[in-house]
Records
---
Amino acid sequence: MRLQRTLKQEVSFEGIGLHTGRHSKVRLKPAPRDTGVIFIRTDKDASIKAAISSVSDTAFATTLGLNGARIRTVEHILSALAGLGIDNVFIEINGPEIPILDGSSIELTSLILGSGIAKQSKKRPYMRITRPVVLTDGHAEIAAFPYNGRRITYRIYFTHHLLGEQKLSLDMNEENFTVQIAPARTFGFLKDVEYLKANGFAKGGSIDNAIILGETGVLNSTGLRFKDEFVRHKILDLIGDLSLLGYPIYGHIIANKSGHTTNLKFLKKLISHPECWELASEFSRQATVSYS
């Protein structure tokens, strides 16, 4: 069972929000053991714990809220923290949405690694899956199975000719997250942009912070970072959402066409079935990447 961890020193960044289009400044600060991840709206004098109970919306992003104060699009920063094993941190923000940066978690990951990671003098428990838990949510599915490690398998399917079906299975550790998942950017379809903006979403979206797909292909001049960057970003989002559980999951998570809403429904089902899991020690194993 590893020790809890926080940042060695504070780091900061700023930028526009993907959905609100508003500029915000963010500061990540070290936090004492057993703190968890705490978002602080400095312009609202409000603190919101990163937890399932704090989720107020899951439309096109994961939003946390408390007493009228909200913070949108928290999944990318939560993914970076969870992917690097940061348990305790204060996240100060002076606006309503975490900046999207380049649409991935790579800049956030670099900031955290640049700060350094400090071990704390208390053990960090994991949730070990002991019996299968399965959720079917319309066309989406997500399940957790017993597994001697931490693994995610994700499948997506879109009718767009460039996407079709993509599937990736990955054992989770800090190196795999940093190299294989953190650089994967969010994506959207050109045909949906006007609808999203008319309904209050994607006001800050552009080819600088998202992969945009037109009828003929990717509109970004830089192209893709991975041939399957789309499914990798879905895994990035899933890692961020799953971190709201409060414990790393020791098991095999298998997701099929899942999104933020289904991810949160799954977490609620998981915690409501304590006969299917136990708090346990971390099991160390060599990570591998496989495609199927």
Note: The first strand starts at residue 3 and ends at 7.
---
Amino acid sequence: MRAQRTIKNEISFEGIGLHTGKLARVTLKPAARDTGVIFIRTDKPMVIKAYVGSVIDTAFATTIGQNGIKIRTIEHLMAALAGLGIDNIYIEVSGPEIPILDGSSTELISIILRAGIAKQGKKRPYLRIKRPFAFEDGHSKIVAFPYMGSRITYRISFNHHGIGEQKISLDINEESFAREIAPARTFGFLKDIEYLRTNGLAKGGSLENAIILGENGILNSTGLRFPDEFVRHKVLDSIGDFSLLGFPIYGHIIASKSGHSSNVKFLQKLLASPDSWDITLEAEEKISRSPALQINL
């Protein structure tokens, strides 16, 4: 079982928010063990712990907040932290939204690695799935199974010839996250952009930070980074959302047509079902799995 981790050095970056279009500066700072991930709005100021109980909005992004102060679109940064196993960190933000950068977590991983990773002298607890747990929310379905590791299987289906149905299944570790998931960019449809902007969203969106699909296909001249980049980005979002549990999940998450809202509801329901999981420092111990445990996506 690994030790807790933080970053070695303070580091900053800045950029515009995908939805607000506002410029913000973000500073990552080391934190003591057992601190968790703490966001700080430096322009208000307000301290908000990254936890499922802090989520106040899941419309087109995951937003945390408290007393009317919010920080929008935290999922890509949360995914980068979770993917690299950063458990304790302070995140100072000078505005209402985390910068979108290129729409993926690749630049965020580079920033964290430049700051350096420091091991801390205390073991990191895991949330271990002990028995199958299923959650359905409309067309979305998420099931957690016992598994000797951390694995995600994800399926999406869009009525657009540029996406269609895509599915991916992989064990999640630092290497697989950085190589297979982090580069996948957020995406949207050209027909929806006017509606989003009318409702105060996607003000900072562009072909530089999102994949945009028109009626005839992808508008980005650079094309896709993966043939199935869309489902990979959904996995990225889910890793960021699931990290709001406060513990890494030791189990196999299988999701179909899930988004930010269903991800957060799944976490809430899971926490309310303690017979399905336990908190352990011994996640490497073998867990018996029945070959009959299956789900049709």
Note: Residues 130 and 275 are 8 Å apart (CA to CA).
---
Amino acid sequence: MYIPRWFKEDRVEVLQSEVNRLSFGTIITHGQSGLMASHVPMLIDPSNGNLGTLFGHLARGNPQWRESSDEGLATFIGPDAYITPEWYATKKLDGKTVPTWNYIEVQARGPITFFEDPRRLLKIVTRLTNHHESDSEKPWHVSDAPADYIRSELRSIVGFEMRVSKLDGKWKLSQNRTAEDREGVKLGLAKRNRPGDVQVSREMGARRSEAGSKPSSLKQT
């Protein structure tokens, strides 16, 4: 992942937390058919390995698990928003501004293994379920379903674990713009109120802004 210095996030706990907050991502591997990708819910266990261990599952009918090589890449995209040059104070000074996109992204890679052990699969689906049901008024539990039904369902999936060897984060939130430009972007996003806009605006407000020397806007994406 290309990460200009303004946008780099390398705090492991922040990256792991963002992966678990987003959860739904893309697991990419390479096999006999070439590159293969599946969009699935995943979580990272921070206690397993220096950078954690990512886990999830695929449908048994998905050929990705049968063909995959030993290394995997998982990508997670957070809130994102289109940024119009009209929000920049700089535009009024010299007009030298172009559109861009603000977003959050985390990538994890490492050796990946697939498994069919029903006990390991049960642990994975239970952790995923508990994570996503945690804010429900009446959480559903795997044990709420008949045990024989769950055993049958587990036979239709294959689990995977990826010991993370590299974890990268990109918080592209206008840190390379002037304070005036950043404020204009935050206000513009809050007013426009499209999907993701408010979240990006809040992330910009929560993150410590670092204004540095400003490269060409054409190279910011």
Note: The chain is about 30% helix and 35% strand.
